[in-house]
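Figure 3 (text version): structure tokens given as input.
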């Protein structure tokens, strides 16, 4: 029989991974936009202000997701080994 604590750990691990995926997607877009700003047309960041806004948004989303990962890890009982 599956223990509730095991289910909780698996759910917490999946949610933490999802937060990490969101962080990766945001930074991917920022990096691609910065390349475009440098002349490699890959994305829609058009100027320095757009780049700054993208970086600030990336940092804020990263902080929120890291806090979410920490909370979910604690909730799920995932311990450091």
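Below: residues designed for each position.
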């Amino acid at each position: 029989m599956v223990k509730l604590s095991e289910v909780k750990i698996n759910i917490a691990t999946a949610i933490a991974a999802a937060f990490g995926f969101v962080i990766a997607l945001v930074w991917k877009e920022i990096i691609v936009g910065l390349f475009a700003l440098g002349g490699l047309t890959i994305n829609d960041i058009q100027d320095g202000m757009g780049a700054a806004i993208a970086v600030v948004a990336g940092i804020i989303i990263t902080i929120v997701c890291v806090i979410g990962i920490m909370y979910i890890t604690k909730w799920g009982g995932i311990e450091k080994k």
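The chain has a mean pLDDT of 80.
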